[in-house]
Every structure is written in structure tokens, then in C-alpha cells.
Amino acid sequence: LTRHVASSDFLRDSGYINGKWTAGAATGRFDVVNPATGEVLASLPDMGAAETATAIDAAYAAQPAWAALPAKDRSAVLRRWFDLMVANADALAAILTAEMGKPLAEARGEILYAAAYIEWYAEEAKRIYGETIPAGQTDKRMLVIKQPVGVVGTITPWNFPAAMITRKIAPALAVGCTVVSKPAEQTPLTAIALAALAERAGMPAGVFNLIVGVDGPAIGRELCGNAKVRKISFTGSTEVGRILMRQCSDQIKKVSLELGGNAPFIVFDDADLDAAVEGAIASKYRNAGQTCVCANRIYVQSGVYDTFARKLAAKVEQLSVGNGFKSGVAIGPLIDEQGIAKVEEHVRDAVAKGAKVVIGGNRIDGAGTFFAPTILTEVERSMTVAREETFGPVAPLFRFETVEDVIAQANDTEFGLAAYFYAGDMKKVWRVAEALEYGMVGINTGLMSSETAPFGGIKQSGLGREGSRHGADDYLEMKYLCIGNL
Ligand code: ADP
């Protein structure tokens, strides 16, 4: 391990099954690489379907006792885990930056954000209320109780190596489910550190299990096909989400899916332009553009188009690109060569069809997978950037004339995760907010994610919600009790 993570007390070189650090029967190994430098950070056992099955058995055996604990006791374990994450936020952030690349300050922000879900659901654990229903007959009483669904399998991506995991397992564990978790192969070290802290917090054996490995399809098939798993919670691409939903259909297994987005970011003539520029920077360039809620299509009304482009370029010019450990760096590397190739293709396609590069537009030479923050103007709907998620630091600016026109364009996508708009007039604010076909709408803000609010998409962006009091519902079954002959 590099100097950045060598001092960490929380790294182990294996998965975690039934309270033991183990590689199972895995014989192969895989490397974890720092995308800013290309250096190998760690070598881990390549666990697969067999280890996943063992972990599922452990989670299945542990689940009844975990669910039977008073909610306050589960809550206390989660609370201790939260406290440990906060106390060790710097060390965790260093691990995250080393394997994923985002700037250290942003990584620290993610650790605290990830921990906030654990805190929130430690609190919610105590508030899983049922209900009573007035019965239609005098000799009957009717009520509803909530029970955990059982063993949950989670599969998560690399762009938020900590938060994507805690958003799922915090509510699952809080309500009495047990978990088998598979982090992305690019970022397993943060997940290992989280598991080490969970162990230290007193998580009973088998309650939280971690499988590390590169064969996502094999691990996924076991999680979806094994009848002891009652629910899959996935964050990642829409293609993989479709595969998992299909695989879960045989057993009518429950699924929560947080999939791709294609977020519109709309700036109306009456917007506060400086605020809109600031919001666009936050929404577009955070995590080097590698989030599913990043602004992907920026629509600017024609009266302010040129001014907005100029103001945005002035800010983008100041964004410093580099190794996330260097102070002042705002944009780290993209995750890998594939990420670079996609961004290059989107820019090439747009330019070939008439877009202008205002700033950036190319990969940065040298070690690591860096792409210059980019602004494209005169972007049209025939270009690939209009339809596909770019997942990189490219802001394509579309010009629009009317409210009707921009709503139609914004909704012209199979995705429906996040949308943003900047406007002044209250009538327009309500009209646009209600017309946008998205699970989340940021109004005069470029950042809206919070553990206190329901995060999730409609259309092909997914199923279910993470965070808020609603997030627990995804891990609960409702049971209706009817008591007769009273
Ligand atoms: P990304 O583009 O963010 O890598 P993916 O959807 O490919 O998105 O990956 C998200 C997660 O899904 C990762 O943990 C990856 O290993 C896993 N994964 C990829 N393919 C499959 C599959 N066929 N079945 C189950 N999991 C998969």
C-alpha cells in the first residue's frame, strides 16, 4: 500500500464473511490501482460465486437473531459505527482518494455524507411504526406490522465508494435485515475499511458480509439466484440494472435500483446568473462529472446564453486538475481508460456535428486518466451528449427559446433521476417543477442530496428511494393481521 494508506488501521487484504476476514476458496488475486498515478495500491483475493454463497449462508443464519434484537440495540451498533467513521474521517478519506481519485476534501465530504446515512437510520431504527385500521365488524381488529425482508444483497459502483454502500446497508441493518455486499472492483478498499469499523463497532458475526472480486456477473448471479436472498439493492448502470432485474424475476425477488441519469440543468432568462453558474459548477464538475445526478445537458434560454457561457468559462478556467492529494485540486482523474474513451467520443461526436469547444476538450497528457474540464456551445439534440450520460467533466450548452420547448426537451429521455433549474418567477417555478419527469428536482440549487431526503429516480433511472423515512420501506415487508372472534 502507498504512503497515503499504509498507516491505516482499517485495511485488510480479504473479504469479510461471518465475522472473519477471509478469502474463502479464492485462488486468484486482483490489483487495486490509483487512477491518478497508475500505481498498484493493493492486491486482493478474487472472490466469486462460492464465497458469495458462503456469505449468504452466514447472513441467513444471523438474520433472525439480529431482527429479534430490540431496535434500540441495533441502533446502538449503527451509532457506534457512525461515531467511528466520523472519528476516522481523515484516514478513510485518504483510502478513498487513493483508490478512486476524487480530491481529498471531496473524499472527506463523502465519508461524512456516507456516515450521515448510518446516523439517520440508527435513529430511524427506533421509529418503524405499524398501524391499526378501524375494522368493519365489531368482533374484529385489524392491524399492520412491519418486518425486515430478510437477507439483502447489495452491488455498488466506484463513484461513491463509501456512500453508495451505506445508503443501502444502513436502512437494511437498521430494520433487521442482514447483508452481503459487493463493492465495485475498482474501489474495494474503502468498503474493507467500513467493514473493519463495523466489526469494531460490535456488529455481530454474519450481519454484514463483504465479498471482493472482479467477476461482478458471477457474484451477481449468485446473489440473484440464491433463494436465501430476498432482496437485491443495486446502484450502477441501467444495462446492469436490467440484467439484475431479469435475474430476480425467477424468484420474484424484490429489487431497489438506482441507475443512470441524464440530468437537465435549465437556466431561464430571469435566473440569478451568478447563482446558476455556481450551481452548474457544483452539479457538473463535482467528482469530475462522475455522478448519476451530474448535470448532463445544460439548457440556457437565448437571452442569457452568451453571458452564461462566458461566466461559466471564467469559473471553469480556475478549476485545477490533478492528483486528489494535492491541495487546491478541484478535479481528479477519471476512473479509468474506459471513462476517458467515453468522454472523448462524446466530445468528438459533438464537434463533428457543429459544437464549439469554449474551453478544454481533451485528455491531459502524462500519467493518470485526467480530462480537462470542458465547455461546449451550440450543442444540438442530434448529438450523443443529448442522449447519453457522459460521466465526465463536459458541460454541453443547449440554447432554448420557450418554457414549453425546454420542458419537452428535458423530458425527452428514457431517464428520470435528477433535474435542475434556475428561475425567478414563482409561477414558472411551480409549473416547471411539476412538469419535469424526474424523481428529484433542484430549484435554484445544484446540490440536493441529503440523508434526510428521498433519493431515487423514475422511468429507467430506477426503483425505490434511498434516505429519509421512506428509505426504510425498501427493506420492510408489511404484514396485515386480522384478529377475529373477539
Ligand atoms: P459502472 O459503469 O459504474 O462501472 P456498472 O453497472 O458496470 O457501472 O457497475 C456497477 C456494479 O455492478 C459494480 O460493482 C460491478 O462490478 C457490478 N456489475 C457489473 N456487471 C454486473 C453483472 N452482470 N451482474 C452483477 N453485477 C455486475
UniProtKB/TrEMBL annotation:
The record's similarity note reads: Belongs to the aldehyde dehydrogenase family.
Q: What is this protein called?
A: Succinate-semialdehyde dehydrogenase (NADP(+))
Classify the source by domain of life: Bacteria
Which InterPro entries does UniProt cross-reference here?
Ald_DH/histidinol_DH, Ald_DH_C, Ald_DH_CS_CYS, Ald_DH_CS_GLU, Ald_DH_N, Aldehyde_DH_dom, Aldehyde_DH_Superfamily, Succ_semiAld_DH
Q: Where does the Aldehyde dehydrogenase domain start and stop, copy by copy?
A: 21-480
CDD domains given in the database record: ALDH_F5_SSADH_GabD
Q: What is its EC number?
A: 1.2.1.16
State the Gene3D superfamilies in the record. Answer: Aldehyde Dehydrogenase, Chain A, domain 1, Aldehyde Dehydrogenase, Chain A, domain 2
PANTHER family the UniProt entry points to = SUCCINATE-SEMIALDEHYDE DEHYDROGENASE, MITOCHONDRIAL
The GO biological-process annotations, alphabetized, read as: gamma-aminobutyric acid catabolic process
Claim: Oxidoreductase is one of the keywords in the record: yes
| Active site, renumbered | E258
- Kindly state which keywords UniProt assigns to this record, in alphabetical order: Oxidoreductase
NCBIfam families this protein is in?
Answer: SSADH (TIGR01780)
Q: Give the GO molecular function terms.
A: succinate-semialdehyde dehydrogenase (NAD+) activity
GO cellular component terms, alphabetically, are: cytosol
